Amino acid sequence: MGLAASQARLLSITSRLSDNELRSQTITNAKMSLAAKTSNASAQYMDALNSTQLMFSTYDASGNKMTQRLSAVSLATYAELKNQYGVINNAGQIMVSETDAANYLASATLADFLERYGVADSTKTDKTNPEYIDKATTIWGPEWETWDNGGTGSIGGLNGREPQQPDYTTVIVTKDPNSELYQKFRDASTSCYNTAMSGSSGAGCYLHVLAHLLDLTEEAANSTIFDSVPGYPKSFTTTTGNNISIDGLKITGAAIHSAGKSPDMVPVSEKVCQNDVMAAENEADMNELLDMANDPTTDPDALRNKKLLSNYYIDASGNAQLKTLKQKVIDLYYAVENSGSLGIDYNTTLKDSMRSFQEDMTLLDMIYNVEPDVPAYEKAHAEWEAEMEKQINELHQIEKIITEIDIEYTDKDAAQWYVNLWHRMNGPADYKVELEGFDNGARADEKTKAAYGDQVTGDKSPANGLTAGGQLLWTVLEDGLYNSADWLQSALENGYVTLERVNFTEPTEDGSGLEDVTWTSILYTNATDISEEQNEEAITKAEIQYQMTVKDIEAKDKQYDNVLKRLDTEHSALQTEYDSVKSIIDKQIERHLKMYS
Asked: Which residues pair with 522 in a beta bridge?
């Protein structure tokens, strides 16, 4: 072999050695990649061994426990002996299925909603709104329908309280031109009065003084003078010697006529016997009478004597009314005549009453004229008209005919489930809540809303159909996620959603629309019917995948080892040939150098 041929061979061997080294390095890298795959497969298998899944337990009618993967659909589907849950997003909305959302949007009332699930039937009946009846009765009274229809019935209610002119009067008090009436009374009974007030034996004399006031004329003794006097007629007969009878509507008795007559006494007597001339007002006297009358421990005799000597009497309603002078004269006459049997001390109690009555007599110097009070009447009537107009306007704001909905449950337990769902989606109203800015589906007519009563409106709150953030109380969870157990588990574990459970409680949360039921937030880890279990299916799949991966890696690793062995054998042969050729080249070079040296 010539030098050139040897050199060409050496270059060929060198190229092949470099190629073998590169292939060996590539296969070695591949083997290292197989080791990484083995590690990944092992990690995935270990993850599967450590993985868990959330399970939801329920019971059938026979009490058998049934367990399934926890998902929105497993929570929201009705079943007997099952807790009711709702999936709640971070905005506070319950996440419902597309079916539940469609049923809600198509329902104007709770009754409509229940019918769509086949758990109840409803009937609608038109009737007169009780609220309308109450308001109309307040305005017109029992025969409100006649007035409401434009007719005229019996007068009642506010209509029956129309102010009348005779009820509004004013008393015009003027000085009596004859200011000597009281003095004439004293002059006509001077001797009797002085005797009565001077000692303890003057009772009979004071009876003559009082008799003067009842002595109109000879003829007046048989006349009617007690007409329309509250609390009278009275009937009593005095002791012999001072006999006077007040019996029925007449006053008779010798004492009246034997007391002596004076023309000056006639106008005084007439004034005293006028029913509109009143005794003097005395607030302390009135309060003392009322206190005694209202105190159950008051001695009956003491109360009787107080009534006789007071300027007031107690009417049928228990109120104190001012006596007329005529009443005061008669009561005082009786008290003086019977002071002994009544236990009234003449020198103290009776004389005080006599002096008080003497002061009352000064009222005879005044003239009391009762005149119509036109301004007061017109003011009262205008106020009445305004109130009538206001009440009638309020009546017209009330729906007269309402549509009452009667719900008959075909499955009461299942119906309760959907009643709870309705109120969690709608708020407390039994008809669709109307929300500004939202298309909330079907609306109830005004008659139906009137039957249910006013719905709550105002601030953003579940009671008004909105979350605190001003969103609807519900949102749709699309079917893919609604049925996905993996999605719900991930969402719960990462805090994207929470759960609410229906609790039957007393009392119910105010404004929920539910009776003895409250939607209550609960941690899924605290729910006894939600458990965490090993994911056997995932473990089995991971184990199979791991075994297949390991087998594949082992097969490839063995193949790589065989290739490396072949490359190593070839590399050894090439290296030997390389060394031989290089030795030949070295010897040829040495010979040529010697030839030219």
From this structure: 499
Evaluate if residue 49 carries a pLDDT over 60: no
What is the CB neighbour count within 10 angstroms for residue 219? Answer: 7
Q: What is the pLDDT of residues 362-406, one digit of tens each?
A: 777 766 677 888 999 999 999 999 999 999 999 999 989 988 888
Is residue 232 scored above 80 in pLDDT? no
Report field, pTM of the whole predicted structure over 0.90: no
Q: What is the pLDDT of the chain when averaged over all its residues? A: 78
Lookup: tokens for 261: 């007559």
Q: Between the CA atoms of 584, 586, 589 and 590, what dihedral angle is there, to the nearest 10 degrees?
A: -110
Alpha-carbon distance of 109 to 445, in angstroms, equals 10
| DSSP annotation of 347 | I
> Please, what sign has the CA dihedral across residues 361, 366, 367, 372?
negative
Answer whether 398's CB lies under 8 Å from 130's CB: no
Q: How many CB atoms lie within 10 A of CB 187?
A: 13
CB atoms within 10 A of CB 101: 17
Q: Is the pLDDT of residue 55 over 90?
A: no
CA atoms within 13 A on the CB side of 591: 7
Q: What is the DSSP letter of 495?
A: T
Q: How far is CA 335 from CA 64, 329, 475, in A?
A: 94, 10, 88
CA 62 to the chain's CA centroid = 41
DSSP code per residue over 130-154:
HHHHHHHHHHH-TTHHHHHTT----
Indicate the DSSP class of residue 161. Answer: G
Residue pair 578/13 in contact by the 8 Å Cβ criterion: yes
Q: Are strands 320-322 and 530-534 parallel, antiparallel or unpaired?
A: unpaired
- Amino acid residing at 33: S
Residue pointed to by tokens 């790589």: 560
How many angstroms separate the Cα of 497 from the Cα of each of 51, 72, 474, 494, 500? 21, 11, 13, 8, 10
Q: Are strands 65-69 and 169-175 parallel, antiparallel or unpaired?
A: unpaired
Whole-number Å distance between alpha carbons of 270 and 337: 23
What is the bridge-based pairing of β-strands 401-409 and 120-128? antiparallel
Give the residue among 99, 100, 60 at the shortest CA–CA distance from 80. 60
In the DSSP assignment, the letter for residue 391 is: H
Mean pLDDT value across residues 327-344: 82
Domain boundaries, the chain: 3-51+537-595, 54-129+400-534, 130-167+373-396, 171-372
> Tokens at residue 484, please?
């996905």
Q: Looking at 427-484, list the stretches that DSSP marks H as alpha helix, in order from N- to C-terminal side.
A: 446-452, 479-482
What's the rounded Cα separation, in Å, for the pair 50 and 57? 22
Find where tokens 């009544």 sit. Answer: 342
Is-contact 530 56, C-beta < 8 A? yes
Helix axes 3-50, 536-595, angle to 10 degrees: 170
235 backbone dihedrals φ, ψ, rounded to 5°: -140, 120
- Rounded distance, CA 432 to CA 465, Å? 9
List Cα–Cα distances, 53 to 67, 263, 271, 307, 494, in angstroms: 12, 120, 106, 92, 14
The CA-atom distances, in angstroms, between 310 and each of 168, 178, 351, 414 are: 29, 28, 13, 75
